[in-house]
Structure formats: C-alpha cells, structure tokens
Predict the structure.
Amino acid sequence: MDANASARLKRRAATIAHRVGLFLAMLFICLPGIWIVLSSLRPTVEILAKPPIWIPQQVSLDAYVAMFSGVGKGGIPVLDYFRNSLIISVTSTVLAIAIGMAGGYAFARYRFRGKSAMFLGLMLTRTVPGIALSLPLFFVYARLDIIDTHFGLILAYVALNVPFTIWLIDGFFRQVPKDLAEAAQIDGCTRWQAFWQVEFPLAGPGIASAGIFAFLTSWNEFALASQLTRSINSKTLPVGLLDYTAEFTIDWRGMCALAVVMIIPALILTFIVQKHLVGGLTSGAVKG
Amino acid sequence: MTVKRLSAPTLLLLPAVLVLAAVVVVPLCLSFYSSFTPFRLTRPETFFTFIGLRSYRNILSDANFWWAFGRTVLLLTIALNLEMLLGLGLALLVEKASRGQRLLRTIMMFPMMFSPILVGFQFKFMFNDNIGLVNNALQSLGVTRDAIPWLIEGHLAFVAISIAEIWSSTSIFAILILAGLLAMPKEPVEAARVDGCTPWQTFRYVTWPFIMPFAYIAMTIRSLDVARAYDIVKIMTDGGPAGRTELLWTLVARTAYSDARMGVANAMAYFSILLSIVFTVYFFKKLAAARTQIGAEW
C-alpha cells in the first residue's frame, strides 16, 4: 500500500471514530431525558414489567390527565404548585435584575476602592450552601412569621440570584463601548438618559438572558424551598415532586409526568438565552 | 448639618449589599452565634445558654461527621476532575464537527436545564435495582443475570451519585470551553503546525493555555454552586444505605430538621460554608492568574 492510500485510510478511520464518539456522547446526554418522557406516557404496568418492555405497547396521556384532575383523583395540587412557582420565580427575577443592573453597572463603569474585594465578597455570599443558609433563615423567618409565604421565598431567591446576576450584567455592560455613552452625554444627554437610551438597549439581550438564568435558578431551587415552605400556600414544583413519593413506594409515572411539566418552560427559556449566556460569562476572559 | 453625598458606585451597589446583608450575612451571624449554644428548635430558651466551643468539640470528635466531610471532598474531587476532562473532550468533539454545530451545541446544553432535584429523581429511577433502565439494559444484554443493587450497596450508591452529578454538570464545562475554542485565533495553531508540532504538542502548548481561563470560569461557577449535590443525594439515597452516602449537607439537614439540634447543625454548616469558600477563592485566584497570563501572551 502506498503512502497516499494509507494516509487516506487513516483519515477515514479518524472521521468515523469522531462521528461514533460524538454520537455516543450525545446519546448519553439525551437518554435520561428521553426515558423520562417515554415513561410518563406509558402505563405503570409497563414501567414495572419484568422482563422489561422496551418498545411501548400503548401510549397515553393518562398521567397528565390524572395529575391535573386535582387532589383525591390520583393527582396532586399541581396547579397550585405551578402558580406558586411562577409567582415566586417571576417576582424574584424582576427584583434580582433591577438590583443586579445597578450593581453590574457600578462594576463595569466605575473605578472605586476595593472593587475586586467587593466583587469577590458578593460572589462569596453565593457560595453559602442552600441547606446551610436555610437553618438561620428558617429561624429568622419563624420569628418574623413569614415561613410558608411567597414573600419569604422571594426574598431568599433575590439574594440567591443577585451575585450571579451582577457577574453576568457586569460582563454585558463591559461589551458596550464606553465612548457611546460619552458621545451621548456630549450631545446633551444626562448620564441617566445616556444609560437608558444608549447603554441599556445595547446590553438588553444580555440582561434578558441574565434574567432567564435567574428565573431558572428560582424555578429549580430545592434546598431552601423544601425547608421554608409547608403547604399549598407556597410550595413550589420541585418540592411538589416529593408528593409522589410515599414511605416505600414511588409513583414513577406521575413523577415523570410532573418532571416533563417542570422541564418544558426551562427548556424553552434555555434555548432562547444560550448564545448570550455564554457570551456574558466569558466576556473579559480574553481581554482581562 | 451636612449630609455627605454618596458616590455613584456606592449608591448603585447599595441595594445589592442591603439584600445580601439582610438575607445572607445577618442570618449567618445569627447562626454563628447559635453554634455556640445548645439551641434546639423545640426548646427556644436554650438559645441563650452559652456553651462555648462544645458543639465544635463534639462534631470534631464525631466519626460520622468526618466520614461525611471526607466523602464530600472525595465526591467533589472526583466529580470536578471528571467533569473538567469530559467537558474538554466533549467540547473538542463538537468543535471538530463540520456539520450540525448548532444542533450539537443545543443538545450539549440539555442537562443544564434539569434542576438538580430532577437529576436526582431521574437517576434514582434509572438506577432502580428492579425496574431501572440501567439494570434492564444490563440484563437484556446478558452482562449480568442478577439485578445490581445500585442504590442499596454503599459503594455502588456512591458511584451512581457521582454519575448523576457528572451528567448534570459536564455541560457547563463543555459549553464554556467550547466558547473558548471558538474565540481562539487560528494563527497560533497554524503556526505551531507549520513549525512541526505534533497535534498533542499543539494542544498542550498552544490551545490549552488559551482555553484555561474559560475552564477556570467554569470551575468558579461550579464551585459557587457545589452544594447542589445536596438535592441529588437527598433524592437518590437520602444519605443511605446506613449513612454510606451521607454528605456534609445531608448530615446538616438531618441534624437540624430531623433531630432539631440547630446549634450543632449550625456548627457543621460552618464547615460546609468554609469548604465552599475555599473552593471558590482558589478558583478565583486561578482565574485571575490565567487571565493575566493570556493578556501577556496575546
């Protein structure tokens, strides 16, 4: 075999190996999700079957119907949980973005003493594990009588989201050239106007994605919610998931269905933001 | 009467500082104080008894605590390193793909959308010894005849938890490293090839230093959130069987809420906070160092 042919063969083998590797990796990533969706559509008998039934024999939406038909009919108060999750996530996101925008702007545009220490300090508040934070919060909230209220959880989530929001928004404002706002100010804008008319629209998409990230964090949070909520007054979906587990048995099908309900909003939102999110996190990684 | 005008950055940062002080710093101070008391939720009056360092002495001489601590560090070490390696591999694979980049990138982000509690539940389902996907597949393929007790045997349970953890967080590394690869200028790589570097040398001395800051960003983000493993463990095994997968965080939760021993739990919680802070500060330092290095070279 001449060198040309062997080089070509080698190249082909490398391409095929690359494709196979890629396929396996993607399969491993997708499989758990696919399995959940599939299980939510099959009757419980099939899930529990031994030997396993790989190809679904019958597909139905029974699990979803049962879930939404309310308490007592094999359902859990999903609508209440959904409403709580939505109210808490949206409110805390809006607040976190407002606070984060102010903070991020300060970090991106001003020089002040102890700036990097301040930044690190803010980040460190985020490192406190949710479960460790829940102990004192539980105590304080019990004293203030705001356990099992929307307000309590919103407050906690705002604090949870602010550090990371500041980091992201700081990155997005850095990408907006300083000259633009300065030019606007020379043309007679106040700093306030220059911000809203020039810098804010330019950083807008980034801020929106920071918002979605904050929303997802609140939407998915469990450690704090599981301790600070008690009833349908404020229980969120992640906590509600536990309703499907009894002492020794788990309603797998119902749980899968609720999982799908939880994941769909997250899925849509993540697709929308993916591009900006990465840009915001890595901005400044190259230029310092 | 002169009111000193606050400077703009102070004013802008004030809301953030206030909220964080109210929700994080003040409660933490409170819990720091209560770690010096024998505080029990059921007996509020114990909040004012001062017992000094007794809680700390107790947990430091408690074998269960040290096992949980060791296990947490072990899990983090294994998970973070493997996530880093797998993420790098995944990013390189996707970057090399000539077609369907957008689709691949979207699939790659898939695990990021799963809340940790969902990840835990989903892997609990898949690793179920009786009806789980993993055992079903292994049995159908004839690898094993008996069901493997994934979540029932201590070591296997630890493996299962690690897999769940790695599955859920590898994509963060992959995405950020991929962003680094895409942002990288092509000339240095070509120059290295022209100069006769092997692919490995090109990667090691040209590509890797460039994407290192991106890897550290991923590490920092991860270390901000290491405790999310609590959700996964809580669902998958709840620290069982017989405490063999008990992590620091599940131990804290159990001591505080099941045993109602808040004082002791707070003392333990401080160890977990310390652990997180050490991880984060370490990676922040690395990140800063890597950034300045890149700045000097490119």
About this structure: The two ends of chain B are 54 Å apart (CA to CA). Chain B has a mean pLDDT of 83. Chain B touches chain A through 98 residues (CB under 8 Å).
